[in-house]
Amino acid sequence: MADVSDPPPIPALLRAPLRALLRGESADWPSSATTDDATQLVESLEQNGLAPLVYSLFSDWPVRSALREIAIRAAAGETSRLIDLRAVLETFESSGIRVLIIKGTGLAYDIYPSPELRSRGDTDLLIAESDLDSVRRILFAGGYASPLTSGDTLAIRQQSFTRGGHVYDVHWDVANSPVVRDALPREELLGRAIPVPRIAPNALAPSHVDALLLACIHRVAHHHDVERLIWLYDIHLLRETMSADEHARFWRLAADRRVVAICERSIELADEWFAAAPHDRASDWLSESERNRDEPSAAFLDRGRTRGGALGADLKALSWRGRLKRVRELAFPPIGFMRQSFPSAPAAAIPALYVWRGVRGVLRLLRRVR
Questions:
Q1: pLDDT value of residue 2
Q2: Closest to 221 measured CA to CA, from 177, 183, 174, 273
């Protein structure tokens, strides 16, 4: 299923046994749990991306049959997804395009026992921006379609391509926000990349240190600190595979890129859910001054943050020329995007729709991000 940004919560009565189960402990179904609890648990697990994984862990909970259907669909779709990905990678390689498989799919074939246990709605690829036109030509020639974007080139650093049930999110930066997008430059990631032979001989993914930093940044900077459990489980699994040296390098990189606070938050939540005991926290590897220094990225953790505040932080991270370009692109998206957004509007109405869109956008700046 597609990623859900803000899934429903796990029923309160079932949080403790689910935590125990995910930590590898025995966990009985509470006798006081109701049918409504079971229904809500299945919905929450599916939207949190954990349904196939949880199905693989127990045999006696009453929700097993419902989770089995979800797990079967995930396993059935994995084969065709892999075949398609291998074909895309082969085409890119023959065209001299170097690709990194980032986030869910890379992790599914690297650190998960079986890839279908890692639910995901798309495959994320990281390319060089200079290869974007070539990638577009290849995917369009292969029958993939992509909607027009708003033309906000300094805040939209990715493009989605869809064909049938296959979706690729092609990125040319690891994040849209300029506050954190330079935390992991593509060339650095390529230099430290690891092979993922379960996908293909030519498949590459970020190292575990880089993948962990990206996982911490992604769930906070792109999804506003939403506690979606599959993203936290990624963080947990990555940390469990890492050596002491890798933990040390991770925290040194986080400090160097000024993302310690958002990494601490992500790891705290992951440990709360999945770890037997907290370990290798920032306090184990960094000095107090390194942990407490000012970081612009920490603003992503502010639950009261407005869209206007987020836009202001993005603009502050840009040069003056970049700020002017961003404001201009926000105010005047391409005409094709406007026609796509308002397909039934006559051409004469487009100028008025630009004004209406601008007013609506200004009002949205007053709303909270979450």
A1: 55
A2: 177
